[in-house]
Prior knowledge:
Elements: H1 37-44, H2 59-72, E1 78-80, H3 83-92, E2 100-104, H4 109-118, E3 125-129, H5 134-140, E4 145-151, H6 163-173, E5 176-180, H7 185-188, H8 191-194, E6 198-202, E7 216-220, H9 223-236, H10 242-252, H11 255-273, E8 279-283, H12 293-299, E9 307-312, H13 317-326, E10 331-332, E11 342-344, H14 356-362, E12 368-372, H15 378-389
Parallel strand pairs: 2-3, 2-4, 4-5, 5-6, 10-11
Antiparallel strand pairs: 1-7, 6-7, 8-9, 9-12, 11-12
Amino acid sequence: MKKKNETIQRPISLQPGESASVVSPIYPSVVYASETPDMLDDQYEGRIQGYTYAREGHPNATALAKQIDLLEQTDGGIITGSGMAAITAAIMGTLSSGDHVVGGDQLYGRSLRLMKSDLPRFGIEVSLTDVTDISKVKNAIKSNTKLILIELVSNPTLRVADISGIVSLCREKDIKLLVDNTFTTPKAFKPMNAGADIVVNSVTKLLAGHSDVTLGYVVAKDKTLNKSIYDFVVTTGLTPSPYECWLAERGLMTFPLRFDSSQATALGLAEYLAVNENVDRVIYPTLPDHPDAAHVRQNLGSNGCNIVSFELKNKTREAANRFVKQLDGIAFAPTLGDVGTTLSHPASSSHRGLSEDERLTLGITEGFFRVSVGLEDISSLRGKFELALKHT
Length: 392
């Protein structure tokens, strides 16, 4: 029998020695060779483990998925090329033309666009509602509702969904619940344990943590549904890069430490901003004046996570521009979860696709900002924000 992976053109293949690599290797191969057609059948039909074509899976994606599975306390996770790829696969792998989906009205901007502009083109009805109020969620449900999509903590206004009420409603109506866990991460909240059917994470953000990969993760509790989502990922080519999976696995090793440090600093920044004379309001889950404090206590406990949102007293674009220009050493960038603190302006970035009236309904003015707190020292952050706020 010929040696595995050896061909006339590539006659040499590296074989592992007696010792083992401490760090996961990168597997850039697009294809994997099998010994016989029977062996290929066994792989495709699940009797043996193996790889065939990288669009269908590769070792680096498997390694990363298993690490996130451990964090989410589930199994069977699927890695995709981005967080939005994971959201799209979860929805399209679950729904069909004629179905209806309910979404939170304060989702990430691109999730809102997918819901409002794209899903209806494929015959999927959409309703958006306030998921902090279970009565409004009940009113949004129709006879053909098959899925509810929420973020436990909304982007960027940090409102907290009534997930226990929504889970009960989903069980009563036989509706699947999809939770985007990107803001909270499995360190603060595990949606499957709370009753969710599908969980999504944008690995790009806190899990990988260094703004150098674009990846997503999705898993469904029901194995048949999980296979449907996987098939959509493979068919539509929402494939992750082996190198990016390898980078994300490396970033994931420090995730718990980074999360704890950033969360502690975020609380300190929120408390500082709350008493700054140039700030009109601050939103942070564990502040006592949070509008959904009961939901916070029930689902997050003492975890406020690493995002702080606030609004300038001067709510004009001119004041926003002055503030950003004066905030030295803080990247003005529409992202979150990096080791460095970043500042974003939803009206001009994540939620620019909404009309001004739609943004104002959500509480997003020209003076509204979202801060993703990184690993800087709190005293340094306070000093930078104090100087910049004086110019608003």
